[in-house]
Amino acid sequence: MKIPNKKVYKRLRRHRRVRNRVVGTNDRPRLCVYKSLKHIYAQIVDDTFINEKGEKCSKTIVAVSTLKLAPVAEKPAESAETPEAKEKGKKQKKGKKGKKVWTGGKKTAGAREVGRLIADAAKEKGVSKVAFDRGGYQYHGRVAVLAEEARKNGLEF
Questions:
Q1: Rounded to an integer, what distance in angstroms lies between the CA atom of residue 4 and that of residue 21?
Q2: Computed from CA positions of residues 146, 150, 151, 155, in that sequence, does the dihedral angle turn out positive or negative?
Q3: Residue 42, strand partner residues
Q4: How far apart are CA 8 and CA 141, in angstroms?
Q5: I need a surface site. Which of 58, 89, 113, 155 has the fewest CB within 10 A?
């Protein structure tokens, strides 16, 4: 397999290292995350599944991604202007602009939605405990948001 660049190679090495320790069982399947530049994917996998031929293989129980979701509209940033100043119609001084509040981007909102949907779909399939496989990514940004939202909606890991 040709590795595109050094960054991808390092992530794949980290992922292999994580996968040596994290195994999805029937009681506690693996919640694995993959993120591309535009989308994020999450699936719950049972790694101890045995098929009809008697071979050990992995079975995807539930899969959710932002591909099928409607685009999430970004919330407009709010200014830190006080209501009294708005009512009186006072103008702010040139150097003092209203401070904008960061509301998160579209990708983060999509990851939050995927986390909620994967938790709901897992509950329908009877899965409550999972082992989290971050896929070699840092537990930061979209990966962390997805994990926290899944925890908030009932998955234990």
A1: 26
A2: negative
A3: 33, 64
A4: 18
A5: 89
The set of residues, in sequence order, having a beta carbon less than 8 Å from that of 136 and lying 6+ positions away, is 11, 12, 13, 14, 15, 16, 17, 18
Q: Bridge-partner residues for 138, per DSSP?
A: none
The residue assigned the tokens 């899944």 is: 150
- Determine the 3-state secondary structure of 87 from DSSP: helix
For the whole model, what pTM was predicted?
0.72
> Residue 140 is which amino acid?
H
CA pair distance 32, 131, nearest whole angstrom: 8
Give the largest Cα separation in the chain, rounded: 77
Model pLDDT for residues 7-31, shown as the tens digit of each residue? 888 888 888 888 888 887 888 999 9
Would you call 125 helix, strand, or coil by DSSP?
helix
40: helix, strand or coil:
strand
Question: What kind of fold does domain 6-70+105-152 have according to CATH?
Answer: Nucleotidyltransferase; domain 5 (3.30.420)
